[in-house]
Amino acid sequence: MGRPDADRRELTGLKVQEVSRGAYARLADGDSIYDGWGANQGFVTTRDGTLVVDSGFTAQAAKGLLAEMRKRKAKNARILVNTHDHSDHVFGNSLFESSSLIVAHANCRRRLIELGSKRIATYRRFDARLKSSLKGLTISPPVLTYQEEMEFELGGTVFRLLHPKGGAHTSGDTMVLLPEQRILFAGDVLWVGYHPNLEDANIGGWLDALEAISRMRIDLLVPGHGQVADKASIAPLASYLRDFDRGFTELVREGVPKDRISLELESLGARDWKLKTIVERNVDLLYRAYAAKVTA
Q1: What is the pTM of this model?
Q2: Which whole-number Å values give the CA distances from 244 to 67, 101, 104, 199, 224, in the listed order?
Q3: Interval 214-244: pLDDT, tens
Q4: Which end of the chain has fewer CB atoms surrounding its CB within 10 Å, N or C?
């Protein structure tokens, strides 16, 4: 995410779940700034090395991921895929860059070069604890990029990198498909049980991307935030995005104050979802755009 909130709860651990033979999701269950707002990671072991999905927000997250790989006797991380440029998914890149080829969509690389240094400097000013968690990290942009789709094989495992063409969560999203295992690491194109960050979203493109996922030959999805799920997890997020867009537009048209809009949109059939603090931030960041749309 682009900037911190004021949530200062304690860090909770990340648990590793084997999604398929050799494919693992490292899942967070917290939603504070120290949890990286619940950002997940993943890795897929092969006989010729490991592919990693996202490096995490802090040095501890990245080092913890490497430790989990060692526990499973995974070979060195050969490829690191960044699913998008937001800080909770990419700040750990520098702990992988000496051994791994960092790959992402071209827009992810562009945005990380443009905004990464400013973002990490902002977080380091948040408090001493977060500054310590980011110690030693530097912004390490992807080296290899693609535009629409990329397919390759590593150690006998086929990987396909997919980009939602119209933009979705960001303009530089990447989803990692393992077609033979029928698994999709969806990044932040999918949120399960978490209010989504909408600061860089194209809601129309996002809905198209979710519809495309629903047509894929997959059994399990690893979201960017939330637990491993099946295709039944797609509809709740799609409904949330539609309701947010429609509700925000109507409330602005009715002249409802901005702080009240946040309260109205916080429920949206998702009262038990985590990361409620992001709703107020979404409204704050997007209010001007919605106001312009209503008055156009």
Answers
A1: 0.94
A2: 39, 38, 29, 13, 20
A3: 999 999 999 999 999 999 999 999 999 999 9
A4: C
